[in-house]
């Protein structure tokens, strides 16, 4: 009998990187959704136009995907919304769905519990069908045009996502945005990682290169200035379990420091035999333990629906609620300028996990 896992793996193998893009179905607006594989140095990634999504990531010699997802489009139009997608145009939350800009106060879409704006609103870039602008065996670039007023933001916005696999097998994600008007832009990749294919985070260790984080209120809005991680549940300066008995939920921004345009280490996620190293140009890393995940009835790559804590979201970005916080790294985008984010996800097989 063929299992759902076998079906997913067969789909991944048959859709060979050398064959180019494949149709997956149609977006809600009727446009065709396509997917393609890129590969190099033992790493393969499947990219979908819907949401500019990283659907699948595999290492030679490892029999499972390292990211949560599905080989089919339908789950991404439902409970797998944002899985592996590029979120924005303003990732994360804006308090009160309102922010000052250019001498006026914007009224933004309150798409989360009627009180905050999350990931650019209900029609943000993660629920749009991007277009493939270029592709090769090792890289692809996707583009998207967002009209004026998307989520209440000035525009229009022109966005680009470039995926490439480098000589060492690292997946680089370059996010860029330009606008015809003064606006906000803070894009972020939103992949959920599960390195052992178990559908749980139980065996995962996490190390984060951050001495401070942003405490939040009940609406997950930062309370103010960064606080030290020392002595808290948020101290990942040495490898420790992502989740342990008694730990508070994890959906927080870790402050990496501000060094514009320069890649520097952000975190390492590891299980026995596999590690993922993440570097980024961004000053923040939002880490979410996936407590709200429930993809029923749709199965994931491992053949069963994903449940709570099935994967860890690692989202390099600028800090949440930055439009309302002049003391935070700015997400302001001026006409004629380009916002640019580069993040590098390097998965590889290792010996026993531990400190770098």
TrEMBL record:
It comes from the Bacteria. Residues 1-30 are annotated as: Disordered. SUPFAM superfamilies: Galactose mutarotase-like (SSF74650). Keywords: Carbohydrate metabolism, Isomerase. Belongs to the aldose epimerase family. This is Galactose mutarotase. It comes from Rhodovulum sulfidophilum.
């Amino acid at each position: 009998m063929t299992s759902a896992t076998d079906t997913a793996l067969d789909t991944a193998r048959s859709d060979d990187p050398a064959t180019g893009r494949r149709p997956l179905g149609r977006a809600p607006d009727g446009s065709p959704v396509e997917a393609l594989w890129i590969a190099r140095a033992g790493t393969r990634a499947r990219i979908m136009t819907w949401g500019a999504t990283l659907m699948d990531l595999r290492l030679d010699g490892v029999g499972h995907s390292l990211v949560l997802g599905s080989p089919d489009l339908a789950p991404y139009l439902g409970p797998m919304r944002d899985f592996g997608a590029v979120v924005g145009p303003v990732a994360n939350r804006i308090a009160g769905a309102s922010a000052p800009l250019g001498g006026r106060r914007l009224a933004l879409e309150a798409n989360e519990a009627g009180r905050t704006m999350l990931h650019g609103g209900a029609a943000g870039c993660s629920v749009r069908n991007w277009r493939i602008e270029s592709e090769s065996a090792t890289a692809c670039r996707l583009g998207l045009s967002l009209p004026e007023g998307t989520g209440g933001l000035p525009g229009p916005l022109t966005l680009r996502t470039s995926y490439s696999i480098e000589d060492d097998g690292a997946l680089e994600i370059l996010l860029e945005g330009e606008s015809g008007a003064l606006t906000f832009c803070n894009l972020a990749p939103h992949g959920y990682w599960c390195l052992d294919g178990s559908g749980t985070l139980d065996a995962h260790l996490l190390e984060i290169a951050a001495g401070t984080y942003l405490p939040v209120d009940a609406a997950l809005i930062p309370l103010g200035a960064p606080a030290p991680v020392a002595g808290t549940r948020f101290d990942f300066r040495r490898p420790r379990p992502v989740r342990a008995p008694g730990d508070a939920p994890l959906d927080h921004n870790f402050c990496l420091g501000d060094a514009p345009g320069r890649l520097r280490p952000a975190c390492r996620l590891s299980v026995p035999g596999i590690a993922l190293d993440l570097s980024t140009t961004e000053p923040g890393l939002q880490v979410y333990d996936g407590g709200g995940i429930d993809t029923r009835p749709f199965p994931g790559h491992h053949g069963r629906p994903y449940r709570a804590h099935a994967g860890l979201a690692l989202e390099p970005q600028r800090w949440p609620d930055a439009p309302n916080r002049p003391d935070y790294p700015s997400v302001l985008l001026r006409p004629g300028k380009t916002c640019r984010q580069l993040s590098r996800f390097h998965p590889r097989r290792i010996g026993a996990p531990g400190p770098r």
